[in-house]
């Protein structure tokens, strides 16, 4: 994910990338100004440190003082408010608001990416919180949003900020993970076993250093994936299962430097048009990612080097083949791996976490996604 802007990815690696369809010309054209702007002098960085969030500094500081809870949260949750990072009733209401947001904005993929990038900085070799990184809400701060790997995620934060404002009894760390799991469930994915109560970091000085997330085009993709995901405590099976999240969404050259500006599957949205998707039905969570990256037959579909390696590396391949053939097995392993990802590095208050699934609320059945409907094809 660190793409062009990471220390481990260079233009030469983009030049040799074996995207089937992303033309080098498009990548280079769009990426150059991006790269230079990201390397502007440290004044921007300093400014970012001085501002807690571009979105809502006043409310943010009051939430932080309250330990991530609203002082005016519902009376029924007074007991929880004494000890818990988030309020269960507000979490459930926030989930309803997220569902409505998803229905109107079709922003499922970017919310999944937001949750993953907040958590994916985790280092299992560091014991102390928040130095160990992980799902702690640090991605709300400018300094981290401006990491190259996080290009575009400010848009996800902007979408969620009104919900954060409404439910100050929900921490950012919980909101990001709630939004991600809800997004997967709402487009046909498996139910993700989740718990809540993640404590937020309180300032930008607690953000992780840049370079913790994976690059899409490293010199040795298998080694790189293992280095990054083993650091987070994941194994080969979990790496492959989690990569299956690319069944959703698109890559945009103006953000990551990867992918075509648009394809027949993305030119009409839904949501903001453009980008290149990994799958035809990129708002449907299924196992088509594994089928498509195995076949590599459609020039309009994306295969990053770190996707392709899942069928080349002998250990990854066992799982990639299995998931291409058996969606149930993918869903089972994905749900477990996603759940684990949502918890890495998190500090829970109360320590055992809070369940909000004691109600009967389930993800609604998604409207079947038809790429043709959005691509103008009959
Ligand atoms: C295995 C290493 C990974 C690499 C190298 C990688 C790389 C990328 C890249 C380059 C993009 C395009 C970003 C853009 O241009 O907007 C992207 C998007 C995305 N990634 Fe990953 N990713 C990885 C793992 C994951 C994981 C573990 C998840 C979730 C569990 C995930 C979920 C997504 C989603 C949903 C999108 C689409 C976002 C959108 O449509 O706005 N990725 N990833």
Topology:
Layout: H1 11-15, H2 24-38, H3 43-50, H4 57-65, H5 78-83, H6 88-105, H7 108-119, H8 142-145, H9 153-166, H10 172-186, H11 221-231, H12 236-243, E1 250-251, E2 276-277, H13 288-295, H14 305-308, H15 314-325, H16 327-343, H17 371-375
Antiparallel strand pairs: 1-2
The protein binds protoporphyrin IX containing FE (HEM).
Walk me through the structure.
The protein is mostly helical. The chain has a domain at 88-343: Orthogonal Bundle (Peroxidase, domain 1). It has 17 helices and two strands. The protein has helices at 11-15, 24-38, 43-50, 57-65, 78-83, 88-105, 108-119, 142-145, 153-166, 172-186, 221-231, 236-243, 288-295, 305-308, 314-325, 327-343, 371-375, and strands at 250-251, 276-277. The protein has a two-stranded antiparallel ribbon with strand order 1-2. Helix 13 crosses helix 15. The radius of gyration is 20 Å and the shape is globular. The model is unreliable at 1-82, 360-366 and 372-378 (pLDDT under 50). Residues 1, 3, 109-110, 112-113, 116, 152, 214, 216, 225, 242-243, 245-246, 248-252, 255-256, 258, 304, 306 line the site of protoporphyrin IX containing FE. Residues 68-86 have a biased composition (Low complexity). Its cofactor is heme b. Keywords: Calcium, Chloroplast, Heme, Hydrogen peroxide, Iron, Metal-binding, Oxidoreductase, Peroxidase, Plastid, Potassium, Transit peptide. Residues 170-378 form the Plant heme peroxidase family profile domain. Residues 251-265 have a biased composition (Basic and acidic residues).
């Amino acid at each position: 994910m660190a793409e062009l802007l990471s220390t481990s990815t260079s233009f030469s690696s983009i030049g040799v990338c074996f995207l089937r369809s992303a033309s080098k010309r498009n990548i280079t054209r769009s990426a150059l100004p991006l790269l230079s702007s990201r390397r502007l002098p440290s004044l921007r960085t300093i400014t970012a440190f001085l501002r807690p969030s571009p979105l809502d500094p006043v409310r943010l500081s009051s939430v932080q003082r309250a330990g991530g809870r609203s002082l005016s949260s519902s009376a029924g949750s007074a007991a929880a408010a004494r000890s818990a990072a988030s309020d269960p009733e507000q979490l459930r209401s926030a989930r309803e608001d997220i569902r409505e947001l998803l229905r109107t904005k079709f922003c499922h993929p970017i919310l999944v990416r937001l949750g993953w990038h907040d958590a994916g900085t985790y280092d299992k070799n560091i014991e102390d919180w928040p130095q160990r990184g992980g799902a702690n809400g640090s991605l709300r701060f400018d300094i981290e949003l401006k990491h190259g790997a996080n290009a575009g995620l400010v848009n996800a934060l902007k979408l969620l900020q009104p919900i954060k404002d409404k439910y100050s009894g929900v921490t950012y760390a919980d909101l990001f993970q709630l939004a991600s799991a809800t997004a997967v469930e709402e487009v046909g994915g498996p139910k993700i076993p989740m718990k809540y109560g993640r404590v937020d970091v309180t300032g930008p000085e607690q953000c992780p250093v840049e370079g913790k997330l994976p690059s899409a085009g490293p010199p040795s993709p298998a080694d790189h994936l293992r280095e990054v995901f083993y650091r987070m405590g994941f194994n080969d099976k979990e790496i492959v299962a989690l990569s299956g999240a690319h069944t959703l969404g698109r890559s945009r050259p103006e953000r990551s430097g990867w992918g075509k500006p648009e394809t027949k599957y993305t030119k009409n949205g839904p949501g903001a048009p453009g980008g290149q998707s990994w799958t035809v039905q990129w708002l449907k969570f299924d196992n088509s990612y594994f089928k498509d990256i195995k076949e590599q037959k459609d020039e309009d579909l994306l295969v990053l080097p770190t996707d392709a390696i899942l069928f080349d590396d002998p250990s990854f391949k066992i799982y990639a083949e299995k998931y291409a053939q058996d969606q149930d097995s993918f869903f089972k392993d994905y749900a477990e791996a996603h759940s684990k990802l949502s918890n890495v590095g998190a500090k829970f208050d109360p320590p055992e976490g809070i369940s909000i699934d004691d109600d009967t609320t389930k993800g609604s059945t998604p409207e079947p996604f038809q790429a043709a409907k959005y691509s103008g094809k009959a």
